[in-house]
Design brief:
Layout: H1 3-15, H2 18-30, E1 34-38, H3 43-56, E2 61-67, H4 79-86, E3 91-97, H5 100-110, E4 114-120, H6 126-132, E5 137-149, E6 153-158, H7 165-169
Parallel strand pairs: 1-2, 1-4, 2-3, 4-5
Antiparallel strand pairs: 5-6
């Protein structure tokens, strides 16, 4: 890697919000080609993460998003609009509408193996993804869980299949 490329990556990672730096650095280090996001919380952040993954990747990115989309109680999003905003050259976008537990079961039946996961944490869905996510993970997969708290704001914690979120946060 040339010094200019390295410096550009450093500037991009440090120029992002503090909570996202860790995610950007992890994406650049692991260079995943298959990404999964459970429940979209911020479309602009997802676009930024896809851009970071594209810069680091050695091939086409396969991005899968599981969300309720139009069925959300708060802030429903049209499936076509989300697809149009996420679609870009070098990224295959796959949107899976529906509840988390049903969508993860469908993905498991398709035999999808993901290398990098971002979970926008909702306590109601925690049991669903903790039990259904491990079969989808490729060896060495990185799993990040978004947390919201008043003192720290939004922050991200890594998750391992054999640990619960409460143990990881402690």
């Amino acid at each position: 890697m040339k010094i200019g490329q390295w410096w550009r990556r450093v500037r991009v990672a440090w120029g992002q919000r503090r909570a996202w730096r860790r995610l950007c650095t992890n994406l650049q280090h692991h260079r995943p080609l298959h990404l999964l996001e459970l429940t979209l919380s911020d479309l602009s952040r997802t676009q930024l993460l896809l851009q970071q993954a594209l810069q680091a990747a050695a091939g086409e990115i396969h991005y899968t998003l599981v969300d309720l989309f139009d069925l959300r109680r708060n802030e429903p999003m049209a499936l076509k609009e989300v697809f149009a905003q996420l679609q870009r050259p070098g990224v295959q976008v796959h949107l899976v509408p529906g509840p988390c537990n049903q969508a993860l079961r469908r993905l498991a039946l398709q035999g999808i193996q993901v290398q990098w996961v971002l979970i926008n944490f909702t306590p109601e869905e925690q049991l669903a993804w903790e039990n259904l996510l491990p079969p989808l993970l490729a060896p060495g997969a990185q799993v990040w869980v978004e947390h919201h708290c008043e003192s720290k704001g939004v922050h991200f914690l890594p998750w391992q299949p054999d640990q619960t979120v409460q143990t990881q946060a402690a």
